[in-house]
Specification:
The protein has 385 residues and is an alpha/beta fold. It has 16 helices and twelve strands.
């Protein structure tokens, strides 16, 4: 394909783990016709149609079920594009986000920015790709917390680490019941989720510098405003939801906390190091009252784990270590963030512990919070579709 893939189509490419991309053949040339190109496996499974591409100045616009073209000189330059191993050029992650601005809502743009700046990606393989991935599942399941972000220097593009969830299934046993039927037992297994861990695609500093540079371009103000809401480097979609619900102004549906830090490094005392087995800890969301220099730590607990349970054990030790040092640690789940009363109770408790003024939300602010909650606790697979 000769055109430069951008916007939502490029977003889906950057979400796809390298080990999944490697399962697919190269794309045919657009000279073979866009119908042939649209029927290639990687397009039908990952990129989807219509394929969004950029055009050169004065180029022809196409809008059909197979392709859509946009004019964006800033996204078609050499510095903004990369050559893939699949026989097409694509906008780099920053230019991809910028060209998405015209296609997605402001909230979805913020979520996409958090994903590209974060340690995670959201991708669901097809059944056929899943079967191929299962062949190397044992090695992935045994990944520990410490090795989660280790890179293989022999690879041009390191494979991403998949996140697994515990599920209970029934298996038959070699025994008969009183009525002659086969007995079953319930066992716990690990199932691959749509969450993957990888190094950030964009540095937070790069995003903000790029947003300032593009501010006066078409769609630039929308892009700039979205970038201002990205304040840290998150490790999961649930963390992002927690950050936005706690840090955004009350007029935007958030709790209005200031001095919010994401995955903030906290040195541990000698006794706390013995508990955690490490010298420092990272709090998921740290909220500080600078007047009394007292922090409150919000730990986001999802229902998924990395590998054999190492992360769950690690999180428990980390929380205990922080509590032993006098930190107020709040364990928050998806259901708690999704419930208005529970979220309000968390906000009230944080204000009490940090000696901050608590204010009840007005009816209008509660309505805005409900809308924000629905937007950030969404199905991340639907972003950009």
């Amino acid at each position: 394909m000769d055109e430069i893939v951008c916007a939502n189509t490029a977003f889906r490419y950057w979400r796809c783990p390298p080990q999944v991309r490697d399962l697919y053949p190269r794309l045919p040339s657009s000279e073979d016709g866009w119908r042939v190109l649209a029927q290639s496996p990687f397009v039908t499974d990952v990129l989807k149609t219509p394929i969004i591409t950029t055009t050169v100045p004065g180029g022809v616009n196409y809008h059909s079920g197979l392709r859509t073209t946009i004019h964006c000189d800033d996204a078609s330059g050499v510095g903004s594009t990369l050559e893939t191993a699949m026989n097409f050029r694509i906008t780099n992650p920053l230019a991809t986000l910028f060209t998405m601005a015209r296609f997605v809502s402001p909230t979805d743009l913020v979520l996409a920015m958090y994903e590209f700046c974060g340690w995670f990606s959201v991708f669901e393989p097809t059944a056929a790709a899943e079967a191929e991935l299962d062949k190397g599942k044992d090695a992935a399941e045994n990944a520990t917390t410490e090795s989660l972000f280790d890179l293989d220097e022999s690879q041009d593009e390191p494979q991403w680490k998949r996140v697994y969830a515990r599920i209970k299934v029934k298996e038959q046993v070699n025994a008969k019941g009183p009525n002659g039927q086969n007995k079953t037992k319930e066992v716990t297994k690990l199932k691959g989720t749509s969450l993957w861990m990888r190094k950030p695609l964009i540095e937070l500093r790069e995003l903000h510098e790029y947003a300032s540079k593009m501010k006066r371009r078409k769609w630039g103000m929308k892009f700039y405003n979205a970038a201002q809401m990205v304040t840290g480097i998150a490790a999961s979609p649930l963390e992002v939801a927690g950050i936005l619900l706690l840090s955004l102004p009350r007029s935007c549906g958030g709790a209005g906390f200031r001095n919010v830090y994401v995955n903030d490094l906290t040195p541990l005392t000698a006794s706390a190091q013995n508990i955690a087995g490490q010298k420092v800890c990272y709090g998921d969301i740290v909220i500080v009252n600078p007047t009394i220099m007292k922090p409150g730590i919000v730990e986001i607990q999802g229902e998924v784990i990395h590998g054999s349970g190492a992360v769950l054990d690690h999180d428990a030790k980390r929380m205990t270590a922080l509590q032993s040092m006098g930190y107020d640690v709040f364990l928050v789940t998806h259901d708690m963030l999704n419930d208005a009363e529970q979220l309000d109770a968390i906000v009230r408790s944080l204000c009490l512990r940090l000696k901050l003024r608590y204010r009840c939300k007005t009816k209008a602010q509660k309505t805005t919070e409900m809308e924000l909650r629905a937007n950030v606790l969404c199905n991340w697979l639907e972003i950009g579709r």
